[in-house]
Write a structure and sequence with these properties.
By secondary structure, this protein is mainly alpha-helical. The chain has one domain: ABC transporter involved in vitamin B12 uptake, BtuC, CATH 1.10.3470. The chain is 73% helix and 3% strand. It has twelve helices and two strands; from the N terminus they run H-H-H-H-H-E-E-H-H-H-H-H-H-H. Strand 1 and strand 2 form a beta hairpin. Helix 2 runs parallel beside helix 5 and helix 10 crosses helix 11. The termini are far apart.
Amino acid sequence: MFTADLLLNAVVAGVLLGGFYAAVSIGLTISFGQLDVVNIAHPAFVVAGSFCVFVLNERFGLDPILLGLFLTLPFFLAGIGLYRVYFTCFERHGEESLRGLAFFFGVMFIVEVLLIMSFGVDYRLVDTGYIGQSIKLGFIGLPYRLLVPFVVSAVVTVGLYLYLSRTFTGRAILAVSQDRLALRLMGANPISIKQIAFGLAVATAAIAGAMLIVIGPVEPSLGRLYIGRVFAIVVLGGMGSIGGTFVAALILGIVESVVGTMFGPSWAPAVAFGFLLLTLAVRPSGLFGR
């Protein structure tokens, strides 16, 4: 029987799940929403981050979230290198639309194959003290495996928002997709700014990967389940809005959780994407789009 207590727990679980969705989507908000680079391989980078955290956690026993923060630098450098390849092969010649999309499809499958060759197809998980524990606030349960990623995601979102709105490089990232000539007049190289932004987008995948393996076990092809969700969240949030991405992720998480609790998990994705289409029919630019 569906009760008010069950509904409230479903809403709370949806909010916490939405925080994780925001962490997975925020990198794509930068690369796709602000740079117009359709990095469909982003969820695969998130899964790669999960496996890197798994290896380091198994070897050193450190907290997964802390390991995700440590991994941001190598992921940032890998993102810069990947963008250089993308720019040299496609964007410089004006072929970034279809061929660039095919390039990131290829990158996604390469990442998956490398993970399968290295770890097999079995699920892997990490060991940390707070997984399996929860806080009880009356009849509401707050599992740490969802609460910790939500808090970290909120901190990362605020940090990125402040960086993009308060620093010269951050403002240049926001400007690079709007007016390259004005950016050059300010003394900034648009290509250098874009590669920094893309590196930053890939760096967020390391943190999101740490959250993913805290929430549950992972396997190499798990990223495919998130491709539709992350693009839906970026579009719903307003294509490039950091705050909009976070709010849209919360909405999608709540809708999925409530529908899954009421009608079963198989209905959750359909209703969530139906909500997306309805919202875009009313507001095509997304919730926070201009």
